[in-house]
Amino acid sequence: MARIRVLFESGEPERVIEFDPRKAPFQHDGRPGSILDVLLAHGVPLEHACGGNCACTTCQTCFCVGPRTIGT
Ligand code: FES
Predict the structure, then answer these.
(1) Those residues with Cβ within 8 angstroms of residue 52's Cβ, 6 or more apart along the chain or in another chain
(2) What number does the ligand 1 atom closest to the CA of 60 have?
(3) Residue 6 contacts by C-beta under 8 Å, 6 or more apart in sequence?
(4) Spatial separation of the C-alpha atoms in residues 5 and 17, rounded to whole Å
(5) Which helix or strand (DSSP H or E) is residue 16 part of?
(6) Is residue 4 over pLDDT 70?
(7) Atom of ligand 1 nearest to the CA of 29
(8) Ligand 1 centroid distance, CA of 38 (Å)
(9) What's the whole-number mean pLDDT along residues 32-51?
């Protein structure tokens, strides 16, 4: 099982999503198994104007490992 901890800038309570990457795709937007694919399938409302095709950046997210930010 993989795990994603989601922290919302809006102040909503954080969520921990567990999923089996072998079961991707979870829905039809974004590359199968991408963060967009996983979050949308688990009810996290992530905007995605171009459907996850890397053309618009509306699905941009920040990734952190431990206390350090590693990328967007
Ligand atoms: S939806 Fe992610 S780049 Fe467009």
Answers:
(1) 29, 30, 31, 34, 36, 37, 59
(2) 2
(3) 14, 15, 16, 17, 39, 44
(4) 6
(5) strand 15-19
(6) yes
(7) 1
(8) 14
(9) 91
Give the separation between CA 47 and CA 70, rounded to whole angstroms: 21
Q: What is the helix (H) or strand (E) element at residue 18, kind and residue range? A: strand 15-19
Q: Name the token pair of 54.
A: 């890397």
User: CB atoms < 10 A from the CB of 33, how many?
Assistant: 17
Residue-wise pLDDT for 6-30, tens only, equals 888 888 999 999 999 999 999 888 8
Map out the domains of the chain as residue ranges: 2-71
User: Per this entry, what is the length of the chain?
Assistant: 72
